[in-house]
Amino acid sequence: MSVAGNVLSEVQFQCSICLDIFTSPVSTPCGHTFCLVCIGGYWDSTNLCQCPLCKETFEKRPKLCINRSFAEITELFKKTRDSSSEQRSAGPGEVACDVCTGLKLKAVKSCLVCLASYCDKHITSHSARFTKHKLVDPVRDLEDRMCKKHERLLELFCKSDQACVCVLCSKTDHRAHSIVSMEDAVQELKTQLGKSEEEIQHMIQDRQKKVEEIKQSLKLSKSSAESEIADSMQVFFDLVSYINRSQAELIEMIEEKQKAAESQAERLIAALDQEIIELKKRNSEMEQLSHAKDCIHFLQSFPSLSTPPHTKDWSDLTVHTELCVGTIRVAVSHLEEQIEKLKRKLSETELRQIQQNAVDVTLDPSTANRWLVLSEDGKQPLYQ
């Protein structure tokens, strides 16, 4: 059956309400077919009893019976569709069967001897004919598993050169090298990978702890700033215009320092979060690689993951929480200076007022206390 035929058949068996294959199909008097539940629910949701497709209105709700013949056809279609989906074609990123002609089905196994991949159908016949061939999960580029020099299967690992080799390579170019089986090499490298994973985990935990420290420091810093603002408001509560202006300037300065601290903290947290993301990504790649069954893929991917990622040392990083220590004292000192200036100004004003109101007073010794001794001009008392 052609693809167009499949599409046409599926459309014929689709309910126009749920857009799925009919379940308990029934037909309305106008000749249109729907699922029994779908058309019943449609009529329950509206005051008019009409066909959802042609909009023909019925005086009363028709009595609907399941079309047994049509129901059997739809069930057969479902079974056909389900059975065809079991042997589906290879999708993007999947390995296709090398034996299939025309539509390539998805491969379920690859043979390292035949250098070919087989679907579920063809792997059965292959396994029956070649019982000793080595089968692995489907992989691409099977040629990469063969030694390009000797055209033999890569079965060993050279620890000296950190490369996969064949048996002939181990007896020629790598004769004096340390040669082990791929399984032993993978086991040893997985041990190293486990240690690297632990280091990555510690690095992640250290950075997460540092993030929490920064957040706590930022919280204390903000609390300290709010406390300083409250103290400044108490200090400048009873003062006039200059004090209000000084208070506003002080608050603005504290908030600017706090904003600067928050901006610095956000940059540090962003940098740490980025490193955490990269470390988690590296950890995920390591975890996936640690479970890899493909030796070649493992050995080829291990060098790039075994080297610790380049990260910044955050151990000496600290965030100062007391950003505003001494701010109020400085502000009060400036205020004291202004108050002193104001006092001097007031004193000068008062003195001028006193001088304007001054009179020439002469004390009369006869009316003063007999113990009072006056100066010769009678203007100042002298005490002996």
Automatic annotation (TrEMBL):
Superkingdom, taxonomy of origin: Eukaryota
Keywords: Coiled coil, Metal-binding, Zinc, Zinc-finger
GO molecular function: zinc ion binding
A Pfam family annotated for this UniProt entry: zf-RING_UBOX
Domain RING-type intervals: 15-55
Domain B box-type residue range list: 142-182
Keyword check for Transcription: no
Any coiled-coil regions, as ranges: 179-206, 243-289, 325-352
SUPFAM superfamilies assigned: B-box zinc-binding domain, RING/U-box
Protein name, per record: E3 ubiquitin/ISG15 ligase TRIM25-like
Annotated organism of origin: Megalops atlanticus (Tarpon)
Lineage of origin: Eukaryota, Metazoa, Chordata, Craniata, Vertebrata
